[in-house]
Amino acid sequence: MAPTKEIYEEAMAKFEVAAKEYDEEKPEHGFDFDEPDIIDFPEHAGIFGAIIHYLLLPFKAFIHYTLPDVRYYESDPDKMLSMAWINVLGCLVHLIIMSYVMVRSLETLGGLLNIPNAIMGVTFSAAGTSLPNYVASQVAARQGFGNQAVSNAFGSNIFNILVGLGLPWTLYIGFVTKGEPYYGMADDGVVTSIIILAIVLLAFIVLTLSSNYVLLGWHGKVYAAMYVVYVGYEIGQLYI
């Protein structure tokens, strides 16, 4: 899944052009303070863009006023590094808060619509948490770095399974049940989802090996179709 020589050379050529343009346009003091703040009204925004901006303005303001702008500390590298670490920790806190709000909102919505939590998890929750991974993988793939795109997709899911599930379970059993097993989790089709996950992973391995580690366009269509079938199956289990 490594980029071909032609793709690699094209990506490097674009990188060199972008780097040269950045060096020419880079401000004297290193940072471009003309970059608009997150709360500023977006330039050339249409009606839809303006509506989205004002709908998200409370969240933008929350991020803007709780995370320091490291650009203003360029004259003091030590303080700038400290602010950068504060930003990293602040971003983690924001992720924790927003994730909790999203999960609780989905649980409430699912309860009102009589939709099991497992269905909400494999549809809305999964899509919402995977969009950043999708964007990052798409950018890497467009630049010819197929390995990075695939590794990002697998790495995020490995982290979700081993840490995102393992750590909370460990803490809950350690501090709440005092070492006793937890029996309160309902199946809700989780076992079936795990089997489907194993089958899809096996299909990915077979397609990758059969194409000599080259990802083709129809591979993506197959994966997308498999996801649509999976979501349709999960929804069908509820209403059929």
Structural write-up:
This protein is mainly α and 240 residues long. Helices cover 74% and strands 0% of the residues. The chain has 7 helices and no strands. Helix 3 (77-113) packs across helix 4 (117-142). 2% of the residues are buried. The mean pLDDT is 79.
Q: Give helix and strand order, one letter per element, not per position.
A: HHHHHHH
Strand composition percent: under 5%
Helix fraction by DSSP (H/I, runs of at least 4): over 70%
Return Rg in Å.
23 Å
Secondary-structure class: mainly alpha
- From the spread of the alpha carbons, the general shape counts as globular
Termini separation (Å)? 40 Å
> How many helical elements?
7
Number of strands: 0
Query: Which spans have pLDDT < 50 for at least 5 consecutive residues?
Result: none
Overall pLDDT metric = 79
Sheet bearing the most strands, described?
none
Describe this protein with a few key phrases.
globular, mainly alpha, 7 helices, 240 residues
Sequence-ordered SSE layout with sheet pairings:
Elements: H1 5-25, H2 47-66, H3 77-113, H4 117-142, H5 146-175, H6 190-210, H7 217-239
Helix pairs in contact: 3-4, 4-5, 6-7
